[in-house]
Design goal:
The chain has about 325 residues and is of the alpha/beta class. It has 14 helices and 13 strands. The protein starts with 12 loop residues before the first strand and ends with a helix.
Length: about 325
């Protein structure tokens, strides 16, 4: 068993944007010595209260699709569960039983089979691009295609271009927006974190979902801080993402991120602890080890709090 290094992140400030498992992630970082600044970047709309999802469900029941594309396991299970809360689960599954079923990956396959549906095909890569390559124009022209989407906001879609590509091949699209996210109702904490990132007040910024990235960047733009945030994320603040899908909105604006090999919260915490100290190496001054971080300095393993002006001066000197 690997022992957690309780000092690897001493003096570092790590920002968390997650809306789920925040306490768990915070505890992982605290155990490694980090200070944590947390603010949810998104608010999940409860499925049972989501009028868009219910409307799409009733549409599928009224006119069953010829093709069903399930993109995620949690999304498909959530859809069926929401339909059950409205007393429509059996009607929904009856409507889907006559469809050709495409599963985008093993988790979606498991959810489909649990619901009594059998997939016709699933891509090895778990990618939407491979699904598009598999479905020809003949498969789609004139067909009604239901696509279960996962992690949709009003301004972002995790599968950009995928529904449009299906429509371009002649399909009549029924988009099913499962787990839709919005900006938090109270933006004070998120705005404060965005401002902190813009002025390099944290050492690392972590994301566990692509909608959180999209929401964070969108709100930064609304605050006229988009350029400052992008600059910080390519210079003084290291962005960490739980996986490549999460990182996609950052990729789209040319901001590279650090990602673990396994898309797990624990792996992300370990990666932050391993990589952040390497990216902000200590200085050796007159025989002393000095770590210059976003909010404090660490001298010979002891945290030293400095005034804002002193920290600014020290950071400038460290760059020389």
């Amino acid at each position: 068993m690997t022992t957690v290094d309780a000092t690897s992140l001493t003096g570092f400030t790590v920002a968390i944007t997650a809306s789920r498992r925040v306490d768990e992630f915070t505890a992982m970082l605290h155990r490694r010595g980090a200070d944590v600044a947390a603010a949810a970047a998104i608010h999940m709309v409860p499925l049972a209260d989501d009028a868009r999802l219910r409307a799409a469900t009733e549409d599928v029941i009224a006119t069953p699709p010829d093709v069903l594309i399930a993109t995620t396991g949690i999304g498909f299970r959530g859809w069926v569960a929401a339909a059950g809360s409205w007393g429509l689960a059996e009607e929904l599954l009856d409507a889907l039983r006559s469809a050709r079923v495409i599963s985008r990956g093993p988790k979606a396959t498991g959810a489909l089979r649990t619901a009594g549906l059998r997939e016709e095909w699933s891509p090895v890569s778990e990618s939407s691009d491979e699904v598009l390559a598999h479905l020809s124009t003949d498969d789609l022209r004139g067909k009604r295609v239901a696509v279960q989407l996962h992690g949709v906001t009003d301004d972002w879609n995790p599968t950009p271009g995928f529904p449009d590509a299906l429509a371009e091949r002649g399909a009549t699209l029924v988009a099913v927006p499962v787990y839709r996210w919005e900006l938090p109702a109270d933006l004070a904490e998120l705005d404060a974190l965005i401002e902190k990132v813009a002025r390099s007040g944290v050492d690392a910024l972590t994301f566990t979902s692509a909608p959180a990235v999209a929401s964070f960047l969108m709100r930064a733009g609304q605050l006229q801080l988009g350029e400052a945030v992008a600059h910080a994320l390519t210079t003084t603040v290291t962005p960490f993402c739980v996986g490549p899908v999460t990182a996609r909105p950052l990729d789209n604006i040319g901001v590279p991120s650090v990602q673990p090999e396994r898309m797990r919260l624990g792996a992300l915490a370990r990666l932050v602890a391993d990589q952040l100290p390497c990216r902000k190496a200590d200085l050796i001054v007159s025989g002393h080890t000095i770590g210059v971080h976003a909010a404090c300095t660490v001298v010979d393993s002891s945290v030293r709090e400095l005034s804002s002006n002193s920290m600014t001066l020290l950071k400038l000197l460290a760059m020389v």
